[in-house]
Amino acid sequence: MNWNLLAEQVLAGHELSDEEGLAILESDDDQILELLHSAYQIRKHYYGNKVKLNMIVNTKSGFCPENCGYCAQSIDSEAPIQKYRMMDKDTIVQGAEQAHRLRSGTYCIVASGRGPTNRELNEVTAAVQEIKAKYDMKVCACLGLLRPEQADKLKEAGVDRYNHNINTSKNHHDAITTTHTYDDRVETVNYAKQAGISPCSGVIVGMKESRLDVVHMAKALKELDADSIPVNFLHAIDGTALEGTNELTPIYCLKVLALFRFINPTKEIRVSGGREVNLRSLQPLGLYAANSIFVGDYLTTAGQEGTKDHQMLKDLGFEIEYPNPQSVTK
């Protein structure tokens, strides 16, 4: 496969076939630099050398009735995690202050559970209103399954983006969770879009899915028209159903990121959970396909120290992108 030619075709409007997608994932490892160079041509066309930073706050941990096999907060999980109920408004706002110090352009308010209660939604919306008044940053909410009126309330409060991952392919979904359906997840993304909120939806790779499943995941997100696509790589946690799963190599992870760039050329592709343990020393190379990362910790696992991420971007010659450079504390 001529990756440069394929990149040129994508920039001209070509949509990858399943066969072309599989060719990326099944390419020889010694082609990885050629593949990334071609993915970078697409990334550079739309995003130049800018990188978006995002930070998560886990506002509610555990107590989830869902049985997602990857999640330490699942009802079936025996992982020894910290559990706590919904944070209050002031604590959520304090997290935004940290995101501001880390120069994050997007602050992600995440809560475990099937979906938010009225009280939880009220805490989030009150916090969002204060955050938007104090900081020039985007706010993303990730609170589980939504009803249309809840999406409207989040939009009214100032939420810019709503995250609800499809996580895996429709074909593989029932092997990961049975307490909700794939269509339930798609429906929530569509409710957010209908409310005028930018849709964020992504995947977790490495959950015993096939390579064709990965191609279909990337294509499903193109069909959903997700503006932001977090690509997570499974960090299998002891005590979860996927404990001990270790299918990924750093080079395969890079191929996945290239695939998502080829299939979703205009979208924000974010290297997300599990990048430190799966990409390891090859983390910087991921940003030749992706244009966004998380800084700080994830939900129940630790991330790389924020200052190391800043240094990595500087070493690559990339620039941090944020809404208003004048608003950032140096």
Quick rundown:
This protein has helices spanning 3-11, 18-25, 32-47, 89-101, 118-134, 148-157, 182-194, 211-224, 250-263, 275-278, 283-286, 306-316; strands at residues 50-60, 106-111, 138-142, 161-163, 198-200, 203-205, 228-233, 268-271, 292-295, 319-321. By secondary structure, the protein is of the alpha/beta class.
Structure description:
This protein has 330 residues and is of the alpha/beta class. Helices cover 40% and strands 15% of the residues. It has twelve helices and ten strands. The protein has helices at 3-11, 18-25, 32-47, 89-101, 118-134, 148-157, 182-194, 211-224, 250-263, 275-278, 283-286, 306-316, and strands at 50-60, 106-111, 138-142, 161-163, 198-200, 203-205, 228-233, 268-271, 292-295, 319-321. Strands 1, 2, 3, 4, 5, 6, 7, 8, 9 and 10 form a ten-stranded parallel β-sheet that branches. Strand 7 (228-233), helix 9 (250-263) and strand 8 form a beta-alpha-beta unit. Helix 1 (3-11) runs parallel beside helix 3 (32-47), helix 2 crosses helix 8 (211-224) and helix 6 crosses helix 7. Residues 325-330 have low confidence and may be disordered.
